[in-house]
Amino acid sequence: MDGSYAVEDRVLMSTIGRSIPSPSAHVLVAASDDRAVVHARPIQARSTIHAAGHHSPTPAGPAAFPTSKRWSWLADTYWYVPTANLPAILYNASSGESTLVSDQTVFHIEGYSKGYFWGKAVTQLGSTSASTSSMLGSVTPEGQVLLTFTLTSTNSSPSVTQGFGKMTKRFGQWTMENQMFTSPTEKLQIGHWAYMVQTRPGMPSWVSLPAVGESVPAFLSQ
Predict the structure, then answer these.
(1) 8 Å CB contact between 138 and 116
(2) CA distances from 164 to 32, 87, 96, 115, 217 (A)
(3) Dihedral in degrees, nearest 10, Cα atoms 207, 212, 217, 218
(4) Cα 127 from Cα 63, distance rounded (Å)
(5) What is the pLDDT of residue 153?
(6) How many angstroms separate the CA atoms of 172 and 170, rounded?
(7) How far apart (Å, rounded) are the C-alpha atoms in residues 131 and 135?
(8) pLDDT, tens digit, 9 for 90 and up, residues 60-119
């Protein structure tokens, strides 16, 4: 490194807190007869700087891409609908009438493997009796969710409802931002979206679920 470049570095450091000269030139200050003499010189080319021993930082390695292991913690978790997201829509395709109803749905994700999860879901609309479905879902490494609920009954064929969603952080915690509609072939359809959140023993929601007033274990036992 030649001496003039070292002076140039020092002068640049000394400009901190003061107005910065035009980026088209470096400024050198020298003392001459007790007066400041200002000399301007074009900025050195990047190749010259490198040659002088000034190297750019080594580029960071490729960003780590998420994998399905990211969501392995979903196994044996419980999810419910908070009060703010309880309203669902009940739509009568024959009459065209729609009504808002309360929809509390609780998931117990029993297992998880390589981006797939399964378990049980219990739903209660308004004051009607709760219904139980088996649940099968998938979640991509990026957090996109696909859900299938199968309601079986001895009196009818299995009824399948599909939904989709996304793992979304709200207020510092993971939520399952879900949307679903019952089968479009049915005259009476139910649509619902919610930021479903986790619950666990020791939380108020575990003891008393919004809209139904039952504990999670009691609600899932139906």
Answers:
(1) yes
(2) 76, 18, 25, 14, 25
(3) 120
(4) 50
(5) 67
(6) 5
(7) 13
(8) 545 578 999 999 999 999 999 999 999 999 999 889 999 999 999 999 999 999 999 999
* Predicted TM-score (pTM) of this structure: 0.69
Q: 153-184 burial, b if ≥16 CB within 10 A, otherwise e?
A: eeeeeeeebebebebeeeeeebbbbbebbbee
More confident residue, 85 or 187: 85
Mean pLDDT of 168-178: 95
Dump the DSSP string for the chain. Answer: --HHHHHHHHHHHHTTTSPPPPTTEEEEEEEETTEEEEEEEEPPPHHHHHHTT--PPPPPPPPPPP-GGGGGGGTTEEEE--GGG-EEEEEETTT--EEEEEEEEEEEEEEEETTEEEEEEEEEETTSPPEEEEEEEEE-TT-EEEEEEEEEETTEEEEEEEEEEEEEEETTEEEEEEEEE--TTSSEEEEEEEEEEEE-TTSHHHHS-TTT---HHHHHT-
Strand 25-32 with 35-42, pairing: antiparallel
